[in-house]
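Quick one, probably user error.
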């Protein structure tokens, strides 16, 4: 399709087999793990009234620069979802399910970002949200679910970075202290960081620019501004992770890109892909968000993992490789196609992955197609076979050669060969 004038929009791509099947297996694996912990699937809409996402924070890039927003034909201000936590808390506020409310989700999100390797404008996330208790053990449960999922994928080079941003009062006091410090050191900061200082001082901590790194390393730490309650919450989370033997490092400069967080925040990074896009997941507590959406105050915690980036990490670590073949059997029929019509249907009903060729093609052309299909076995039906009441089974990949078997023992024979 090189010459086609139509192309997928920048930052999007077509997932074709085997990547499409890897994506599905990834979600299935995740669904298995989270449903064992009592999380039920939720499928929120892909767009919402823009106010829902404005709760992510006026100073965040997601709201200021990256929103896919538009006015619909009824004059409503709508945005494609840049993430799902806000939608889920909106759903909670709307339906008021009984608590605790534990849900999981999988699906695409949209952010108008600078597209590059590992950073897309449409990307998939899987995640969980748990509302209804501020017990630090729930933070630990949520982190552990993500960790066990990475383990189940076979990933070994994942780091868990942990922080607390305290209660909203702690956060406000800290932002004041931080802004005061950064204002004093303003001349040492990059121009970009000087601008960020005005819109969102916390984000300056996240700067990777050389001139900023020195300034940030001497900045006051959030951990020195935690109230006693926040401190004891954070300690309980750390103790819980230690009990489960989940390694972590406390990273006081960890700033998440969304504003709703209080108390615990965390991010998963990988050593196996480019440092610029090394965040393969993240999450935290958002105890104030439900009230902001008009529900009674309800604490909540959750995470989302980037499917696209996590699969890139799997590729780099040579794990969760995905399916090897689409088909097991290819039916070759030189008698006009009636036989393959029937046998293909029977084999599919018996659970085999089977295809055939269409159009009255020569034996040679059909065998070529069988080979190209990746199937392990060709099941050949010619005039000879029909006369004798047999089919020929040919091993296309191994050493087993070919044999004629009676038509009534095909299923048993294939079960033995393919398991
Ligand atoms: P987030 O950190 O914005 O958090 O996104 C979570 C993950 O989604 C990232 O770590 C990354 O792997 C992936 N991701 C984000 N943007 C892109 C992109 N443009 N291209 C590819 N992957 C991307 C949230 O979305 C929060 N809702 C997480 C959460 C749930 N917090 C509490 N509950």
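Nope, works fine. Designed sequence:
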């Amino acid at each position: 399709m090189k010459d086609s004038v139509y192309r997928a929009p920048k930052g999007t791509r077509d997932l074709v087999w085997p990547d499409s099947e890897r994506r599905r297996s990834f979600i299935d694996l995740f669904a298995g793990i989270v449903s064992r912990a009592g999380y039920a699937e939720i499928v929120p809409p892909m767009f919402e009234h823009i106010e829902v996402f404005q709760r992510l924070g006026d100073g965040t890039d997601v709201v200021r620069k990256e929103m896919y927003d538009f006015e619909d034909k009824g004059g409503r201000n709508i945005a494609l979802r840049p993430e799902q936590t806000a939608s889920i808390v909106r759903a909670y506020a709307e339906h008021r399910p009984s608590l605790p409310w534990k849900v999981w989700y999988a699906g695409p999100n949209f952010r108008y970002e600078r597209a590059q390797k590992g950073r897309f404008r449409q990307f998939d996330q899987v995640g969980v949200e748990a509302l209804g208790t501020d017990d630090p053990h729930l933070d630990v449960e949520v982190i552990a679910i993500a960790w066990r999922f990475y383990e189940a994928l076979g990933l070994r080079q994942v780091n868990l970075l942990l922080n607390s941003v305290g209660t909203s009062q702690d956060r406000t006091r800290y932002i004041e202290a931080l802004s005061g410090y950064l204002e004093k050191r303003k001349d040492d900061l990059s121009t970009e960081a000087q601008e960020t200082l005005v819109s969102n001082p916390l984000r300056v901590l996240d700067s990777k620019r050389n001139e900023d790194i020195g300034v940030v390393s001497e900045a006051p730490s959030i951990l020195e501004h935690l109230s006693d309650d926040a401190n004891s919450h954070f300690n309980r989370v750390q103790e819980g992770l230690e009990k489960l033997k989940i390694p972590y490092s406390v990273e006081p400069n960890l700033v998440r890109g969304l504003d709703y967080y209080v108390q615990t925040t965390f991010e998963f990074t990988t050593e196996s892909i480019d440092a610029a896009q090394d965040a393969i997941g993240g999450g935290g507590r958002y105890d104030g968000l439900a009230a902001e959406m008009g529900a009674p105050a309800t604490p909540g915690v959750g995470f989302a993992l980037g499917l696209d980036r996590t699969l890139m990490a799997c590729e780099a670590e040579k794990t969760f490789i995905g399916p090897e073949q689409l088909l097991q059997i290819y039916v070759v029929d030189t008698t006009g196609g009636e036989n393959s019509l029937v046998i293909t249907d029977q084999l599919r009903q018996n659970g085999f992955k089977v295809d055939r060729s269409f159009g009255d093609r020569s034996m040679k052309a059909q065998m070529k197609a069988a080979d190209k299909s990746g199937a392990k076995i060709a099941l050949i039906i010619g005039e000879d076979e029909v006369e004798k009441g047999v089919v020929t089974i040919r091993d296309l990949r191994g050493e087993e050669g070919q044999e004629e078997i009676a038509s009534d023992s095909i299923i048993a024979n294939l079960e033995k060969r393919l398991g």
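The pocket of histidyl-adenosine monophosphate is lined by residues 83, 85, 111, 113, 119-120, 123, 125, 127, 129, 257-258, 279-284, 302-304, 306, 308-309 (CB under 6 Å).
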